[in-house]
Please model this.
Amino acid sequence: MAPQLSEFVKAYDVRGLVGSQLTTEVMEAIGAAAVAVTGELKWAVGHDMRDSGPDFAAAFARGATRAGADVVEAGLCSTDMLYFIAGQRSVAGAMFTASHNPAEYNGLKMCLPAARPIGLDTGLADIRDKAQAILDGEPAPEAPKPGTVTSEDFLAAYADYMRGLVDLSGIRPLKIVVDAGNGMGGHTVPAVLGDQLLAALPLEIDPLYFELDGTFPNHPADPLEPSNLVDLQARVKEVGADLGLAFDGDADRCFVVDADGNPVTPSAITALIATRELAKDPGSAVCHNLICSKAVPEIIAERGGRPLRTRVGHSFVKAAMAEQNAVFGGEHSGHYYFRNFWFADTGMLAAMHVLAAAGETDRPLSDLAEEFVRYTPSGEINTKVTDPHGKIDEIAEQFAGQNDVGTDLLDGITVSFKDGSWFNLRPSNTEPLLRLNVEHRDQASMERLRDDLLRIVRN
Model:
């Protein structure tokens, strides 16, 4: 029986178990379907360091070329490197990665030319259904003349482009530890920040886990999980580094720790980068998702920008950025989006902004980051519930009619209080989970509000 694609085609990408769900037959069908549905006849295909990546990329190319498309195989790529190719060459893109998922997984992210995302609402559902029909026996699309497959290495072009966006050549010397988590940061960091392909920058890089290994022998490549930052934090303090950077498996997200090993929140990084971008482009819009710190829109407005609040998720941020021509966008999850990067997310460019900010002053990063921290966050707390929407309704009813609060339903429910505190409770798109984020001016007040809400959610 053919795999059922509806089980592992998600809102924005494909993510499943290799062998039982993801096979070369599935990827060949998706390649053919992607060409048939989008009508795009030029594609770039890349993959991360997982063992199944090369075979899946080749299978996608077979299906796509049989349907009449020309395919350039880019080989090893970070996801943002694939976006670069799609933007620079004006081709559609297919990136084989499961990001931070464990070794037994792989996946596929696709985009249109100029790195425009393909999600369920923008073609992925039709691609899924067409590929399912092919797997169930419908003849695959076959052009009178099949397309061609060529290979090209884009690493040098990507590195050169990134260097042109943020000039690090004049910063003070910095010592940094970079934890690539055995992911694609081990491929791109030496090219962009090191001297592998371009002139050396005033950076001394102490590499952690740069060996590409899709089994993740040291720790999962998910720096959003605090336990996966422990090695980086220890190494930063051990060698006396100025800061540390951690990339996820496909290197489209970046996390930062200061010289004391303390994590710098993605909200603070969002505010920092927004400040830098607004200095170059005053008055521009800057996007932030609704669970970023309240400090983010405050600082954007103070620096002369227009804060734009979005739902959580890259498709919502990218759509809002394109609509408003926003200069930058940030999410709590460590995704950072740039107008001069086709509104796409790139961990590398965010890291370069942090390095530039740190290198333009003698102050430690902890001092810089403190300027952008005004409230105490709870972090995201997940709770399994049988009826997520019923619980949200219960919370909404509890706060309905209160004069000192404001509520909105942009993404789950957000309740804002006159003292500046707020919380958001929203359902997961894929699991029976509720995700709670709380923010208050001090730790004790945040904990009281958090615990009161969790009692309701978990009863």
Observations:
- DSSP finds 14 helices and 23 strands in the chain.
- Residues 155-374 form a domain with the Alpha-D-Glucose-1,6-Bisphosphate; Chain A, domain 3 fold (CATH 3.40.120.10).
- Residues 443-458 form the longest helix (16 residues).
